[in-house]
Write the structure tokens for this entry.
Amino acid sequence: MEIFLKKSSTLSSAKSLALISLLAIMVLLPLLTFAQGDLLITPRRIVFEGNKQSQEINLANTGQDTAVYAITFVQYRMKEDGTFEQIEEPDPGQKFADSYLRYFPRTVTLPPNESQVVRMQMRRMPDMQPGEYRSHLYFRAVPVERPLGEEDILEDTTAIGIRLTPIFGITIPVIIRNGDVKGNVTFSDMTLEMQNDTIPVFNVKFNRSGEASVYGDLIVEYEPEKGGSIEVGIVRGIAVYTPNLARTFKMQLQKPEGVDYSSGKLTVRYVDGSDTSSEVFATGELILN
């Protein structure tokens, strides 16, 4: 998208022009970034363990324009609040996986409503120590160059053209587990607070142990003093990555009719969210009063 603004020879007009340009960019950039988000990736998490040596990643363009994506590896550390920070060197106890992985192709061109498979192979090397290795595969949108002669032509030659080119990207974790590595998790520091006296927010701390990351769905149920339990919250795909030992998390709970958060209790479960397993990783209870 382009914005065209008039030139001005006065100082006050020039300041106004700069202000209008900045406001226009601030307003339009989130919309443009959202409009670029037409890449569908499945699965959203790759794990190599046991005898698994290869996997496929399916990419689909759900938009109306042809999109080009460059595929590279990036490295992240997870902070205790669950946010990520890009790094170049591993933290103590962290191992990168990219040097043991191959994938093809490295650039994908997807016409509208088309899909393509990216194939990934894992190579076990003699120098690999037991443990978990992790890197993140980064799918970065590459702006499509417009051929000469197709650029918009300004009817007013005194106008300024501002071209906004947002860069859109998605990352997915790729994990290698070498050897018999396991991860365990427990809950602590569970509290319930009422924001603005009306919005119930549940706080919990995940405590991870072992050599592997943990990944699953968090389910919260309200159980009154009398009667059956009611599901009041679920968040899918919560991870605690190595080498982190803890992650704090908060979620807003529903407030259906008949639920009184001043009494009863909350039952909390952290479960395997895959279709092939119903394993419960951790449970906890919070008495409300």
